[in-house]
Amino acid sequence: MPLIEQGRVAEDSWSLIPDGEPVPNDRPAIISFERWQAERASFDGRNAKLGVRLKGGTLAGAVAADLDRFALVAVEFPKFRDGRGFSTARELRERYGYTGEIRAVGHVIPDQYQFLMRTGFTSVEAPEGTNVESWADALTEITVAFQPSLDDTQPLSLLRRRLGAG
Amino acid sequence: MNHIAPGARAGIYHYDEIDRRFVGERVEQFRKQVERRLAGELTEEEFKPIRLMNGLYLQLHAYMLRIAVPYGVMSAVQLRKLSEIGRKYDRGYGHFTTRQNLQYNWIKLEDTPAILNELADVDMHALQTSGNCVRNVTTDQFVGAAADEVVDGRVYAEILRQWTTLHPEFTYLPRKFKIAISGASSDRAAVRVHDVGLLARRNEAGEAGFTFYVGGGLGRSPFIGKLVREWVAEEDFVAYLEAILRVYNQYGRRDNIYKARIKILVHELGLDTFRQEVEEEFERLRGPKYRMAPEIVAEIRKHFAPPPFEELAERSDILERAKATDPAFANWVAVNVAEHRAPGYAIATISLKPPGGIPGDATCDQMDLIADLAERHSFGELRVSHVQNIVLAHVKQDELYDLWQQLDAAGLGTANAGLIGDIIACPGLDYCALANARSIPLAQAISARFADPIRQRTIGELGIKISGCINACGHHHIAAIGILGVDKKGTEFYQITVGGDPTLTTAIGDILGPAVTETEAVDAIEAIVEVYLANRTGEDERFVDTLKRVGHAPFKERIYAAD
Asked: Which of A49, A67, A102, B114 has the maximum number of C-beta atoms within 10 A of its C-beta?
């Protein structure tokens, strides 16, 4: 499954480790949130990066206390119509101050790419067979956003535009 | 852009280059999405929400395209364009909806990109008129004109229009989300049957703020909106809404489409828990990032500055003379004309409910005429009301007679605003894939039965609303007399409810008795009216008050005793 970053296919240094299989100690590994809960002590002293994958129904609050242990949080979209993940990313960033990578996984479509970026995702694991060009297009086809982005310091951004224009 | 000069018109938000660029980009995006669907890159399942968010529904017989009319306000130029599109791509008419929008019922999929292009020429679009996103925010159709207005709801509805447009976090909500704002002492926007209902008010210092009701809604489980916060200051109102939506987006049910609205979440969590979640989010969100600074509000408010009213006498002799000589006109004035805040002006409601007509339908010729009349008599601006009529908000009293004569000649002079003939009906089984029964023919039969304007006025304020299925798009729950179409083994039946109330004293009507057939329904309505007239203490006792006093028994007896 292609990894998309900044509208381009990128090399994926992470591997998702299915529950029950050994977690490699020498390279970045993503484990399920359930496994983390069950086996967290076994990751004490780990040097390689660790990532956690949240199922659609697992909200940001569940993982909040452990965020300093993870270099990546993968947020799963069970269906592209299920928009909980947008709030999960936003909460991770705004409420819990998470600064690591947030990756969208599961069923997401290029038409959602801008929303993903603007709610705090940094990468997308696009479904198999996706048209990579559509992801690139999606970044530029709408150039106007009426709400502030996460990193926006200007409150209510666009509503403000008229003040400058006079 | 060919709008008439800003100084000469009433308050309409005028697009700037950014708004225009945005709509243009969205049209182009949708064109590409259609191409990707046709190329098989998007599945039908993936394409459906995309097309819905562009206002395109697949109905029983054809595609339906729903055009956004933000808070129901538009210019004459825009209405003329809607008429042109209706002529070119539909069958010569359009249908005004209970969300103050307009829809075309006979659209071809392949025409939609061209239609969206034409709409963009007059700063219009079909965005977010459907789909599980925040829909067109509605407000009082008398906004900016009503004598009882405290806060101008358009200003905040426009802020919300921008705020909710392609909101990155809230475009894939569990279900659709409807917001209504009322800023007057009478609620003409039915705020307590919306997902979020806002009452705009002023505190003792004269500052604007909002009372938030959450979790109202009709459909198969009707709920009256619950008071979540008595006062949210103007500067916090986006933050508070953001908090509500974030709680809903995370916790709202997604396992069952019928339990996915926020009303069910509020009900299942309980009001106190829901409020606590919202307040926690709000406390965190309310920082500078979401602060609605007074200068932003002031800038938006400039768009809605009062039109250049002339200084006129309170009372118009021309109007009085015309009323004295033409009783039909006098009746129209008494029923369809409301008090304006500027001396010598009046608010005129154009009824789209002629006896025997289809509620909310207007022919393209009628739309053209209304556009002309809006330019001549109301600063080039008009409103769509949520009861599916058109309002010219700023008419000189001196010109009312002239206006009415032109309306009447075009079949638009019906005097029934708020009366029994002013029926709300959903499209029903004539158009809608969800419906169990037809709504329109019944509305036509009832309005024909009560065609006599004097009889209607004698009956007084009495709303009838008809829904063709339990989704309740016709708002039957909150009607004085509500009618719900049901299917019994392939035959259409109608269940009658009484005692609903759409105003701030919101009430859900009660079922009167067993469902009746279409022909029985008209007689049953007439029987209900007769029982009311026989029992009321006087002309000023409204139907709902008589009902409260005498109960269901006399009504039931009259309708069902004969069986």
From this structure: A102
Residues of chain B with pLDDT > 90, as a percent, come to 81
What does the block give as tokens for B561?
Answer: 């005793």
Q: What is the pLDDT of residue B37?
A: 87
Helix axis angle for B262-269 and B237-251, nearest 10°, is 80
- Specify the pTM: 0.93
- Which residues 22-51 of B have a C-beta within 8 angstroms of A? 22, 25-26, 28-29, 32-33, 36, 41-42, 46, 49-50
- Which residue did the predictor score with more confidence, B224 or B7? B224
Burial of A60 (0-12, 13-18, 19+ CB in 10 A): buried
At B313-345, the pLDDT tens digits run 999 999 999 999 999 999 999 999 999 999 999
Class of domain A3-165: alpha beta
pLDDT in tens, chain A (166 residues): 899 999 999 999 999 999 999 999 999 999 999 999 999 999 999 999 999 999 999 999 999 999 999 999 999 999 999 999 999 999 999 999 999 999 999 999 999 999 999 999 999 999 998 999 999 999 989 888 888 766 665 555 556 554 544 3
Where in chain A are the domains?
A: 3-165
What does residue B422 show for φ and ψ, rounded to 5 degrees?
-85, 65
Interface membership of A133 toward B (CB under 8 Å): no
Q: Say which of A141, A146, A162 has its CB closest to residue B28.
A: A141
Residues in chain A: 166
Give the residue from chain A lying closest to B133, CA to CA: A83
Task: Determine phi and psi for A49, rounding to 5 degrees.
Answer: -65, 145
pLDDT in tens, A3-49: 999 999 999 999 999 999 999 999 999 999 999 999 999 999 999 99
Q: Does A55 touch chain B (CB under 8 A)?
A: no
Would you state the structure tokens that stand for residue B281, as one six-digit string? Answer: 């989010």
Ordered domains of chain B (ranges, CATH) = 6-121 (3.30.70), 145-302 (3.30.413.10), 317-409 (3.90.480.20), 433-560 (3.30.413.10)
Chain B (44-83) residues lying within 8 Å, Cβ to Cβ, of chain A = 46, 49-50
B156 vs A: CB within 8 A: no
Q: How far is A86 from chain B (nearest CA, A)?
A: 5
**In chain A, which residues have their Cβ closer than 8 Å to the Cβ of B25?**
141-144
Our CA-based measurement puts residue A48 at a distance from the nearest CA of chain B, in whole angstroms, of 32
